[in-house]
Amino acid sequence: MKENTDFAPVLIPQDYKLDSPVKWCAGCGAHAVLSSIRNAVPETGVKKENVVFVSGIGCSSRFPYYINTYGFHSLHGRAAPIATGIKLANPELSVWVVTGDGDSMAIGGNHFIHVIRRNINMSILIFNNRIYGLTKGQYSPTTPKGSVTKTSPEGSIEEPFNPGELVMGSQGAFFARVVDTEPKMMKEVFIQASLHKGTSVVEVLQNCVIFNNDVHENITGKDVRDDHQIYLKHGEPMIFGKEHEKGLIYRNNKLEVVIIGKDGIRKEDILIHNANCANSTIHYNLVKMDQPEYPVAMGIIRAVEKPVYEEMLYDQLAHAQEKSPIKCMDDLLKSGNTFLINESSS
Amino acid sequence: MSKNPRIIELEDVVVKFAGDSGDGMQLTGSQFSDTSAFVGNDLSTFPDYPSEIRAPQGTVAGVSGYQVHIGHKDVTTPGDLADVLVAMNPAALKTNMKWLKPGATVIIDIDNFDQKNYKKAEYIEDPLNDGSLEGYNIVKAPITSLTRSTVKEFGLDAKTADKTKNQFVAGILFWLFNRDLTIGENFIQKKFKKNADLVNANIAVLRGGYNYAETIEAMSTTFLVNPAKNKKGLFRNITGNIATAWGLLAASEKSGCGLFLGSYPITPATEVLQELASRKHLGAITFQAEDEIAGICSAIGASFTGKLAVTSTSGPGLALKGEAIGLAVITELPIVIVNVQRGGPSTGLPTKTEQADLLQALYGRSGESPVIVVAATTPANCFTYAYEAAKLSLEHMTPVILLTDGYLANGSELWHIPEMKDMPEINPPKVKDNHEGYMPYIRDPENLARMWAVPGQEGMRHRVGGLEKADKTGEVSHDPYNHQVMVGLRQEKVDRVANYISDQEVMGEKDADLLVIGWGGTYGALYSAVKELQNEGRSISLAQFSYISPLPKNTEDILKHAKSRVICELNLGQFAMYLRSKFPQYEYKQYNKVQGLPFMISELKAKFIDLLENKGK
Q1: Do B459 and A2 make contact, defined as CB atoms within 8 angstroms?
Q2: Looking at the complex, does the CB of residue B456 fall below 8 Å from at least one CB of chain A?
């Protein structure tokens, strides 16, 4: 796994390719995500030796083996704390976590909410295929209720998590959603997620061709996607539909889908997306939107500035080092109560 | 009124302080031990506290204790039985009667000895009048009422006033041990320097206690313990947990690898996290994680990034960390796992000591998962072994489990302060940028450690992970033969650590009639018991192990020469099982205790005499 040591000053996606074969199933949505990441990373402006990919366990978590950066394929659910240690050890690094719906929402659920609460600067990509793929087809915490899987032969009786809701509930500062069928959208959002200071979470709606094929088809299908998705962009009106004829307004304490030109609705009445608004009420409502009542929100839903954990930590370290008279171990060893025994004090 | 009491010079004295967990007995005890160190006594201390923060007042469950053993001679344990007991209430007296030497001095706060408190302590009869105190020297001191009347003029509220009671006790002890009262006054001035009222009130109470003791007739004898005869130089009193934290800091400074501790609070290991959290000025990074698993995982991430990575825990936490230790084993990243053992299984006895995590440390993981295991043997040498654990981990690129226990962690002893220039060098196998021919799993041919390249280094990009690695390249490999090679290499790497550690020492004759074998925190008691029997002319020796995995190279030689062997441990025989598996050709007797308490010297001596006199039976 030795790298080619020629240092290219201008990085290209090829810099992030490895010779070893990618072992995802043919037709897996992860291939497209990998390609978008390889295209996005060079545009973040980070030196290639400063990029680190960390993953847990699952199909998606094989990711670090397929990209030529520093990488750590860790334990089931534990990518977030491993990445935390890496980032706190060296805040210069650009840290990415690649995880799945089982890895981050089930076994790693606790770590997921706490890394977000702390706001450690890293980007977490959740490959959400709503199924356990690597163990061959059991329901996950995001599997829709009623789904028949190998461990729910009569249909799942569990309410699924919506990752975005957990992000909001954990005081998250950045949440975005993309689909694996939209490479351009993925690349744009990944770059912004990486540039955001703090924990940024991107949910990637991903297809599992073997165990949950077409699970997102109702959102991503060519003939329905314009009506069933809304690609949110900061500062732009929330308009969607094949003919750009639909929009969102906020009325009676909730979002509502309206048709421009109908019932006196004008284009100016449509909500303008403000991803930077500290108050998360609208973002929360956007995250929760689902078929059939609403289009599913895509793009950067929330991106607000918040104090970053490791910056505060290093401030405390610098302050303590400046203030304390104890500068080294020998100082510490001789500090406080010491006793000179059987010698006259000098 | 002054009198001239008889002064008895003693080789050593054991003082026990006992009261409600809110009475400040830990503080009184540590103040007494500090003044003892100040006058040059050798010392060893041991707190004994309930797991509840404030159990119901006056009850047996709420009794908190602190034992101090001071000596002119060498002191290696907090002592079996007390010469002096301070009991702040009936419950404290009841709990500690069985730990008193015949004729001991018992100082009680008579103000708390009433029907109400007898009932709380579940005394059926008045202990002061039922004959149970016959033969002891009882000092009935009105500590609460005299303290209150002394501090009246300082205008303290009742709660703060009562908190100065411990200075009254200290004052009595200053008199009893013939100590200069100004030492105590200086301590108070240092402690409360920001509050003049508290300084004055505490000093007044301290003098009050001293004058009270001088005035009453109850104590006709006072004690003098001269400075330690075998100690010379600069010392400090240190607990095992603080020594552990400092050993890690020292290793960090020496190795040039910044310290990162990822941890989660757990009794009795929490002070390691707390101490390092307050050492940011030495560059220590502490991360209080959301759970034990995140604690070790963050440390593994930091290790991947080039830090001296540490996680600290106790038994139940070690169980949770098992999977992640396996990850550190297969990624061959250095990490020190500090396990402060407590009574188990499960939540068990959180505040009590035990040695029952040995097999968990050695084997408690999936797959073939060898790690280095070392154990500290005294509170102060937690520093040495924490340093050693870090050194071995960094230089051999492998996880090290450092075993201490609740007794070492909270106990303290006088420690000869080392100088950093005398500490051994630590040379982790870090590589420079663009290292020619770097592959993650190329090894040092001598110790088999892999090279350590870290994120941010130019030309060294590589990936590690929990899947089996191909030899040298580190690529993912499911090749059957490769797996066997890698399993073998990881084991061999740990085995070869034996070439880098010191030989096992034996205290006494190599071919003694009885070789006592211990490991870790039982050293003080085993040492004293064996030493005393040696002084009585018995053929007995001691081998106290600190290096558990691997064992020192001369281990078999030591076992071979002994005429008989007894393994003593605070569990049902885990080290015995381990030694039997390594050296099945020898016979081992066992002495095991699992009460959450350390060994007593007296019980050990009785056992050893029995073994010596009934050979072969």
Answers
A1: no
A2: yes
